[in-house]
Design brief:
This protein is mainly α. About 85% of the residues lie in helices and about 0% in strands.
């Protein structure tokens, strides 16, 4: 039985973004602007929340926190048309068709957004419950043991669940009938390879994120110029985030095409 070539698919996802970066920029420009604006507003809100909490105004702090949550939902909603369009772009390239996709907001994007939020909440609940279960370990092995269990058990488990449900999204983008149970069945044979595919795509993302974070910390010690460079680095980080999302979406779409067709 032929196994899913997860490394080949991960490389193909990154190559597709690399060779079609102009199309990615064209499709991702508006979502990028919205995400960047939301990040700026959230930074302002974080300052206001801290100020309200310091003055004992719990009501204002809670209200600002809720507003921040709504802004994050706006950010997710803004990226959905890009993810749908990029999935279709990936299929066009994979099937040697001339890609002709544009950003759109309609029923397909709404369904995609709804599944994204619903599955995100479900997996988030699993993560939260697992984290609470780990609390007694603090008395035994301290924070280090909890960190190791999180890194080696909980986070890989969350990634596993995410990849088992991942086929929902290419099917929605292609306007095919789907649900999480169908995705679970479709990914059953190649579940380990899909988990490894997720790792292969995400690990470079994590490494780049750590590097950007370390550079940002270093820049914080440089007066004036460091602040300007930090802002530029933040903008770059948002652009890199869009690129990694595109690579992940391409990889999942290509895996779906291999498994389902």
């Amino acid at each position: 039985m032929e196994k899913l070539p997860y490394l080949e698919i991960a490389k193909s996802g990154y190559r597709l973004v690399y060779y079609n970066w102009q199309s990615m920029v064209r499709l991702g420009l508006i979502p990028f602007a919205v995400i960047l604006g939301v990040a700026l507003l959230n930074a302002i809100l974080a300052t206001l929340v801290a100020s309200s909490a310091a003055t004992g105004n719990a009501g204002a702090a809670a209200g600002l926190g809720f507003l921040s949550l709504l802004l994050n939902l706006v950010s997710i909603a803004a990226i959905v048309p890009f993810l749908v369009a990029w999935t279709r772009f990936t299929f066009d390239v994979a099937e040697s068709r001339m890609p002709d996709v544009r950003l759109a907001v309609g029923k397909t994007e709404f369904v995609y957004f709804a599944w994204l939020i619903a599955l995100g909440i479900a997996i988030g609940i699993v993560y939260a419950v697992a984290s609470v279960i780990l609390v007694p370990l603090a008395a035994v092995g301290g924070v280090v043991l909890i960190g190791l269990v999180m890194l080696l058990v909980i986070l890989p488990g969350v990634l596993y669940l995410s990849m088992r449900f991942a086929f929902v999204f290419p099917e929605v983008a292609l306007e095919r009938k789907t649900d999480p149970f169908q995705s679970w069945r479709q990914t059953g044979k190649d579940h380990i390879e899909l988990w490894l595919l997720g790792l292969a795509v995400i690990v470079p993302m994590v490494v780049v994120g750590i590097v950007i974070g370390l550079i940002s910390i270093a820049l914080a010690f440089i007066p004036v110029v460091g602040v300007i460079l930090s802002i530029a680095l933040h903008v770059l980080a948002m652009a890199v985030y869009i690129g990694f999302l595109a690579a992940f979406t391409s990889a999942v779409s290509l895996a779906y095409k291999r498994v389902v067709g």
